[in-house]
Amino acid sequence: MSDAPRATVADQVLALRAAPTRGAIVDLVPYAPVHHDRVIAMRNTSRATYFLHQPAPLTHEGQSRWFEGYSARRDDVQWAICRKDGTVVGATALYNITADRARAEKGRLVVDDAYAREAPYTLEAELLLLDHAFGTFGLAQVDTCVRHDNGVMQSINARLGFVEVGAHDIRGVPYLDYALTPDRYRPDALRATVAAWARRTERLALLAR
Ligand SMILES: CC(C)(COP(=O)(O)OP(=O)(O)OC[C@H]1O[C@@H](n2cnc3c(N)ncnc32)[C@H](O)[C@@H]1OP(=O)(O)O)[C@@H](O)C(=O)NCCC(=O)NCCS
Predict the structure, then answer these.
(1) Looking at ligand 1, which atom is closest to the CA of residue 113?
(2) Phi, psi of 123 (to 5 degrees)
(3) Cβ neighbours for 56, distance < 8 A, ≥ 6 positions apart
(4) Residue list, ligand 1 pocket, CB within 6 Å
(5) Residues 2-20: pLDDT tens digits?
(6) Is the pTM of this model over 0.90?
(7) Measuring from atom 21 of ligand 1, which residue has the nearest CA?
(8) Which residues, at least 6 apart from 16, have a Cβ–Cβ distance to it below 8 Å?
(9) CA-closest candidate to residue 38, choices 118, 112, 100
(10) Would you list the domain boundaries of the chain?
């Protein structure tokens, strides 16, 4: 057995912020100021504003302030979800990662509707994030909360194995609480779906030559 000290959560957060996580159809690219305008635009759509219950439109100044706070934290990883050609199609985060690895939250997820129908980008982004949660960090549980009428997100969470564990109120709107533990995370069939899409995309690219 190695005597090398195990990396802390903070060390691992910094490592994830330093390099992209490569998937088959998307990459999770560490969030940086270059992503502000694209993410602000996606977050300010009426759909995202409604489901994320944003009290006011995001601004460049506000996003810059948020990024300063984010950069100082060591329990939060925010990514831009990028298509393989580099196009930013969404954003997602694993945050409030506790130092004892007991839990973290997944959220701040948005995928641009203009790209979402092309391929299961959301699904692969969720799998890459949960692979970090349970693989990289070895967390005991991932929590997430979803607006009561967000059927799309509830369906995605159910496919990933999340179970409803409660509800709470955010500024007058009911939100449902979900939790996922490693024993319920069964990603193999979902990964196979993503891999099939990647092969299909490769075949289409070959045919187009
Ligand atoms: C949530 C979001 C990222 C999902 O992106 P998407 O790529 O369109 O979603 P997907 O195509 O991967 O998944 C859609 C799923 O919802 C299901 N669905 C679609 N409409 C539905 C509805 N009205 N009710 C229930 N399920 C529905 C689909 O059948 C599919 O589930 P399945 O794969 O199990 O069949 C995107 O809608 C978004 O950015 N929304 C605004 C922000 C938001 O809600 N973020 C989450 C906050 S917790």
Answers:
(1) 8
(2) -60, -50
(3) none
(4) 47-48, 51-52, 107, 109-111, 116, 120, 122-123, 146, 150-153, 155-156, 159
(5) 567 789 999 999 999 999 9
(6) yes
(7) 152
(8) 30, 77, 132, 136
(9) 112
(10) 9-190
Residue 195 exposed, middle or buried by CB count within 10 Å (0-12, 13-18, 19+): middle
Name the one residue in this structure whose structure tokens are 């890459």.
128
Q: What is the CATH number of domain 9-190?
A: 3.40.630.30
Whose alpha carbon is nearest atom 14 of ligand 1? Answer: 152
Render pLDDT for 106-139 as a digit per residue (tens, 0 to 9): 999 999 999 999 999 999 999 999 999 999 999 9
51 CA closest ligand 1 atom index: 44
Smallest CA-to-CA distance from 75 within 93, 54, 52 is with 93
| Gap from CA of 151 to ligand 1 centroid (Å) | 7
In whole angstroms, give the CA distance from residue 144 to residue 180: 9
